[in-house]
UniProtKB/TrEMBL annotation:
[2Fe-2S] cluster binds at residues 80, 85, 121, 125. InterPro entries: NuoE-like, NuoE_dom, NuoE_N, Thioredoxin-like_sf. GO terms for molecular function: 2 iron, 2 sulfur cluster binding; metal ion binding; NADH dehydrogenase activity. Its cofactor is [2Fe-2S] cluster. Belongs to the complex I 24 kDa subunit family. The gene is nuoE. Coiled coil: none annotated. Binds 1 [2Fe-2S] cluster. PANTHER family: NADH DEHYDROGENASE [UBIQUINONE] FLAVOPROTEIN 2, MITOCHONDRIAL (PTHR10371:SF3), NADH DEHYDROGENASE UBIQUINONE FLAVOPROTEIN 2, MITOCHONDRIAL (PTHR10371). The keyword Metal-binding applies. This is NADH dehydrogenase I chain E. Transmembrane segments: none annotated. PROSITE patterns: COMPLEX1_24K.
């Protein structure tokens, strides 16, 4: 069962659009921001609120790599692996992240602090190689600066 405050927000999103189903991405983002991932039980709740079949909501979550149904962490690092970031050195960013965090994509650090996710273009190609920590945007410069960025997240 979703917490009352989250449930209220989802209902507000659903009522904002002419068709409830148009609120699906907004609702899923809201759930993910709340829990750090998308728990199974939340899919049913979202489906009910939007008056959609459960498998429709599951398909949307599976389609977009921005949605994460796996193990949660306190912070999610999303690394763009699309072409511009690739050409601008995303491999150096990934190497530095692996060395600093000792995890691979899809994994969570032992202390539950970070989860590393590979995603497609985040629309910030001029900042390539680009990554996000939660909703904060960053351009990768070097391992030392990356370490300084990560130290801001407890
Ligand atoms: Fe990486 Fe667009 S290709 S942000």
């Amino acid at each position: 069962m979703l917490e009352e405050s989250l449930l209220e927000k989802l209902k507000q999103h659903a009522e904002y659009f002419p068709k409830r189903e148009q609120a699906i991405l907004l609702c899923l983002h809201e759930v993910q921001n709340h829990y750090g991932h998308i728990p199974e039980f939340a899919l049913e709740e979202v489906a009910k609120i939007l008056d959609l079949p459960l498998n429709h909501v599951e398909n949307v979550v599976s389609f977009y790599d921005m949605f994460d149904r796996g193990e949660p962490a306190r912070h999610r690092i999303r690394v763009c692996v699309s072409v511009v970031c690739h050409l601008m050195g995303k491999d150096k960013l990934i190497k530095a992240l692996r060395e600093l965090l000792n995890i691979d994509f899809g994994q969570v650090t032992k202390d539950g602090r970070f989860k590393l996710l590979a995603v497609q273009c985040l629309g910030a190609c001029s900042e390539a190689p680009f990554f996000m920590v939660d909703e904060d945007a960053y351009k990768f410069e070097n391992k030392e600066k990356l370490n300084e960025v990560l130290s801001r997240y407890a």
